[in-house]
C-alpha cells in the first residue's frame, strides 16, 4: 500500500493529512518511483499556506529520491532499477509520498557513493547553491558575501562552496548554537541578528566598505539591512521570503544607497535548460562525492510526522537539511 500527505485546503501545518493512495501505472513520459527519502524545504510551507496558490485537493513536496519501479512509453533516459532524485515546482508537486508517478524529465541519476538520503537532502538545495555561486555574480577570490540563514540547508552548502572560491563569508544566525554550525562550515564571521545590528556589524567587518553580494532568504524583516550592507554597485539577491514578502518600494532607494542592483531569481529558470541543469547538477554532486562539500542532515522525520516537521521548520528549530525517511 502506498501513502501520501494530502491537503484539502491551504492553511497551517494541521491541514496536511497522511492517507493511503492508489498509484497505478505510468503513462507516457512518466515513471513509477518508490521513494527512499523525501526532502523537506521551506518552499513547501508556501504551497501549504497558500503563498503559492495550487488547486485543492493536492499533494505537497517537490523533492525526493528513490528507485524506478516502472517506466511508461517514451521514457528512455532512465530504466527500472535506476536510483534517481528530482526537484522541480508544479511538475513534481506531491513528493511527500512513499510511491508515486512522476514525470521522467526532471529525474537525475544519483552518482555512486551518494545515498538516497543525501540526494533528497541536497538536490533542491544543491542546485540552488549551484546557480547562486555559478550564475548570479562573477565572483572573484577576495570578494565578500553576506549570507542570511547561514546555518540552514542552502546556507551550509553556499558557505562551503564560497570557501572553495576564496570568498569571505559573513553569515547571520539566530543563536550561538547556529553560529557554531555556520562557522564549522566556512563562515568567517557570524552575526546574531537577535541582538546585533546586521548592517552596522557588516560595515565594521568590512572596514566600512560593505559586501559585494547579499543572499537574503528571509525577506521582509531583513530587506533594508541587506541593502545597507552592500558596497557601492553591490548586488542584492532575494532568494526567499521566510519572514514574509518584501513590501513595494521606490527603486530610487537603490540609487540613494549606492546604485545597487537587485534580483529575485527562481530555481526553475536556472534548470529549465536540460544542458544547464546537467552542468549544475554535475558540479554540485561532484563536490559532494569528492568530499569537498558536506551535506548535513540534522533532522529526520517519518512521513506521517509532516505536521510536526513543518512546525519545527517554521519555528526555526532546524539546522542544515531535513528529510523524511521512508
Describe the structure.
- The structure is a single chain.
- This protein is of the alpha/beta class.
- It has 2 domains: 2-124 and 274-325, Quinone Oxidoreductase, Chain A, domain 1 (Alpha-Beta Complex), CATH 3.90.180; 137-264, 3-Layer(aba) Sandwich (Rossmann fold), CATH 3.40.50.720.
- Helix content is 29%, strand content 27%.
- It contains 10 helices and 16 strands.
- The protein has helices spanning 42-49, 116-134, 153-164, 176-184, 198-205, 223-228, 252-256, 267-270, 274-289, 306-314, and strands at 2-7, 16-21, 30-40, 58-59, 63-71, 83-87, 99-103, 108-109, 144-147, 168-173, 189-192, 211-216, 230-238, 261-263, 297-301, 321-325.
- The strands form 3 sheets. Strands 3, 5, 6, 7, 8, 15 and 16 form a 7-stranded mixed sheet that branches. Strands 11-10-9-12-13-14 form a 6-stranded parallel sheet, sandwiched between helices. It has a 3-stranded antiparallel sheet with strand order 2-1-4, with no helix packed on it.
- Helix 7 links the parallel strand 13 (230-238) and strand 14.
- The longest helix is centred in the middle third of the chain and has 19 residues, at 116-134.
- The radius of gyration is 20 Å and the shape is globular.
Write the layout of secondary structure elements.
Layout: E1 2-7, E2 16-21, E3 30-40, H1 42-49, E4 58-59, E5 63-71, E6 83-87, E7 99-103, E8 108-109, H2 116-134, E9 144-147, H3 153-164, E10 168-173, H4 176-184, E11 189-192, H5 198-205, E12 211-216, H6 223-228, E13 230-238, H7 252-256, E14 261-263, H8 267-270, H9 274-289, E15 297-301, H10 306-314, E16 321-325
Parallel strand pairs: 9-10, 9-12, 10-11, 12-13, 13-14, 15-16
Antiparallel strand pairs: 1-2, 1-4, 3-5, 3-7, 3-16, 5-6, 6-8
Helix pairs in contact: 2-3, 2-9
Amino acid at each position: 500500500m502506498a501513502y501520501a500527505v494530502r491537503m484539502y485546503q491551504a492553511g497551517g501545518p494541521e491541514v496536511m493529512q497522511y492517507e493511503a493512495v492508489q498509484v497505478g501505472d505510468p503513462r507516457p513520459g512518466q515513471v513509477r518511483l518508490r521513494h527512499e527519502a523525501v526532502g523537506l524545504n521551506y518552499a513547501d510551507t508556501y504551497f501549504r499556506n497558500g503563498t503559492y496558490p495550487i488547486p485543492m485537493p493536492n499533494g505537497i513536496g517537490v523533492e525526493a529520491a528513490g528507485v524506478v519501479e516502472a517506466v511508461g512509453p517514451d521514457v528512455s533516459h532512465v530504466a527500472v532499477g535506476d536510483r534517481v532524485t528530482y526537484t522541480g515546482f508544479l511538475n513534481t508537486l506531491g513528493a511527500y509520498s512513499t510511491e508515486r508517478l512522476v514525470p521522467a524529465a526532471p529525474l537525475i541519476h544519483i552518482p555512486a557513493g551518494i545515498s538516497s538520503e543525501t540526494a533528497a537532502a541536497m538536490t533542491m538545495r544543491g542546485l540552488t547553491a549551484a546557480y547562486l555561486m555559478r550564475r548570479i555574480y562573477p565572483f572573484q577570490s577576495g570578494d565578500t558575501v553576506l549570507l542570511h540563514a547561514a546555518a540552514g540547508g542552502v546556507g551550509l552548502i553556499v558557505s562551503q562552496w564560497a570557501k572553495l572560491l576564496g570568498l569571505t563569508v559573513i553569515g547571520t544566525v539566530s543563536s550561538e548554537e547556529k553560529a557554531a554550525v555556520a562557522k564549522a562550515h566556512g563562515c568567517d564571521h557570524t552575526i546574531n541578528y537577535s541582538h546585533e545590528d546586521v548592517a552596522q556589524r557588516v560595515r565594521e567587518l568590512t572596514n566600512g566598505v560593505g559586501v559585494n553580494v547579499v543572499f537574503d532568504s528571509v525577506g521582509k524583516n531583513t530587506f533594508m539591512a541587506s541593502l545597507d550592507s552592500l558596497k557601492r554597485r553591490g548586488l542584492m539577491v532575494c532568494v526567499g521570503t521566510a519572514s514574509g514578502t518584501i513590501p513595494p518600494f521606490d527603486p530610487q532607494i537603490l540609487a540613494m544607497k549606492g546604485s545597487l542592483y537587485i534580483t529575485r531569481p527562481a530555481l526553475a529558470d536556472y534548470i529549465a535548460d536540460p544542458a544547464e541543469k546537467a552542468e549544475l547538477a554535475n558540479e554540485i554532486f561532484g563536490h559532494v562525492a569528492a568530499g569537498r562539500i558536506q551535506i548535513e542532515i540534522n533532522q529526520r522525520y517519518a512521513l506521517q510526522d509532516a505536521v510536526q516537521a513543518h512546525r519545527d521548520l517554521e519555528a526555526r528549530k532546524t539546522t542544515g537539511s531535513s528529510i523524511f525517511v521512508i
